[in-house]
């Protein structure tokens, strides 16, 4: 709008000047002195009128640009005294100054806000010029972690603590690196990373330092707690069926002692029961040894086992506790002589885990049923499936069931399935779960 009115005023003045110049030329061509003098004066006046009009605006613009050059946005141009077009120009200048001051004020607020945040975080931060060593920014956390005063140039650290300067500032830590830093009388583990960035022609280096000593100590403590939780969980899973079977055998022996005629003692049942307890106890011992060094295990004690026999051993062990909970169990093997090369003790541990999960899932169902089946997979090897008609697993959490310490049970430790997966990986196999909420779950062990 200001430019449009300026253009109209400029064209008007140019038009007036042209008219008087034409009149002056006409008067000169006629040689009439009475017309030449007035038209000459009017032409000079109109030229001065145009020149003054342009110069005033150029002076105002030049003055504004001079203020911008020296970043002086505090000037205020009068908006009441003067011609309309100059006042419009002044209003535009004042609007620019006001906008720039608001932007600067906002940047200053953001800077102070960022400054307060960086001072409050427990992460040490320093940015400095790589060429001159001048410190652009550092915070209190970095000075505390490195036990140094506030410095204006990193060369000060180089002269006072050359080893620290070399390890933290000179070495490349484009990837996070763990460094031991001696600060005061203590040595702490620090996580160091850095990045190089450019501002104009200057190159700066940003160093980020985080004290991870306390975090490592806390994680180590949590790891021990979780290890104890895992061991307790797996030991209880094995002890529960052993205890139940032992209780059944004890009851049978006591009844045979009290009423030998009515309840004769079946020695074969006793032998098989004691054999099951012996095998599971040995399996528990082997599990404890294997878990203790699970990360070092490169080979297993594999033997070729008939899965029918494997299921018989599991049935002897789990039958008393499952019958007590009125859960029907069906074992199926097709073909009957199907074999697999496995570590029997560890796979028994996996099956016990899966059966106990199915027992929990079937809680409250009158027609609770678990099917443990074995068949030949498409790859020619065996696959074992544990299927139940329990409550199933919600779709939104089924992807997390193998994550260590993730559990949908109120009292679950979240390590049973993750341990099953690790054992299957040691067998170079896979474990898969398919579940429909409200209908049941099928877990497959694919060798």
Automatic annotation (TrEMBL):
Pfam families: HATPase_c. It catalyses: ATP + protein L-histidine = ADP + protein N-phospho-L-histidine. Residues 230-447 form the Histidine kinase domain. Its EC number is 2.7.13.3. GO terms for molecular function: phosphorelay sensor kinase activity. InterPro entries: HATPase_C_sf, HATPase_dom, His_kinase_dom, Sig_transdc_His_kin-like_C. Coiled coil: none annotated. Keywords: Kinase, Phosphoprotein, Transferase. This is histidine kinase.
């Amino acid at each position: 709008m200001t430019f449009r009115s300026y253009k109209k005023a400029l064209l008007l003045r140019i038009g007036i000047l042209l008219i008087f110049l034409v009149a002056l030329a006409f008067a000169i061509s006629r040689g009439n002195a009475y017309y030449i003098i007035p038209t000459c004066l009017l032409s000079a006046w109109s030229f001065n009128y145009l020149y003054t009009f342009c110069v005033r605006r150029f002076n105002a613009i030049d003055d504004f640009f001079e203020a911008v050059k020296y970043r002086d946005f505090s000037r205020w141009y009068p908006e009441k005294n003067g011609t309309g077009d100059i006042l419009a120009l002044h209003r535009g200048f004042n609007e620019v100054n006001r906008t720039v001051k608001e932007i600067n004020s906002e940047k200053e607020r953001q800077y102070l806000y960022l400054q307060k945040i960086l001072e409050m975080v427990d992460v040490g931060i320093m940015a400095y010029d790589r060429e001159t060593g001048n410190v652009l920014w550092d915070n209190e956390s970095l000075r505390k972690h490195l036990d140094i005063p506030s410095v204006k140039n990193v060369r000060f650290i180089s002269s006072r603590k050359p080893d620290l300067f070399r390890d933290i500032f000179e070495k490349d830590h484009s990837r996070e690196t763990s460094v031991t830093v001696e600060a005061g009388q203590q040595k702490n583990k620090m996580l160091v990373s850095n990045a190089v960035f450019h501002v104009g022609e200057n190159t700066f280096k940003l160093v980020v330092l985080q004290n991870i000593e306390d975090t490592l100590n806390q994680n180590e403590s949590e790891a021990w707690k979780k290890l104890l939780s895992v061991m307790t969980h797996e030991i209880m899973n094995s002890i529960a069926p052993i205890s139940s079977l032992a209780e059944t055998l004890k009851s049978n022996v006591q009844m045979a002692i009290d009423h030998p005629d009515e309840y004769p003692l079946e020695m074969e049942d006793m032998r098989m029961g004691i054999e099951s307890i012996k095998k599971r106890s040995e399996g528990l011992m082997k599990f404890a040894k294997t878990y203790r060094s699970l990360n070092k295990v490169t080979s297993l004690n594999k033997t070729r086992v008939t899965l029918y026999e494997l299921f018989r051993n599991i049935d002897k062990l789990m039958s008393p506790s499952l019958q007590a909970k009125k859960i029907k169990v069906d074992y199926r093997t097709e073909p009957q002589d199907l074999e697999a090369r496995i570590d029997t003790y560890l796979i028994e541990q996996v099956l016990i885990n899966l059966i106990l999960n199915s027992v929990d899932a079937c809680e409250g169902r009158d027609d609770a049923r678990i099917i443990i089946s074995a068949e030949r997979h498409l790859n020619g090897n065996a696959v074992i499936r544990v299927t139940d008609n329990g409550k199933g697993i919600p779709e939104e959490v089924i992807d997390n069931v193998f994550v260590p310490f993730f559990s949908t049970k109120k009292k679950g430790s979240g390590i049973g399935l993750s341990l099953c997966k690790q054992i299957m990986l040691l067998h170079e196999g896979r474990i898969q779960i398919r579940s429909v909420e409200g209908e049941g779950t099928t877990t497959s062990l694919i060798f």
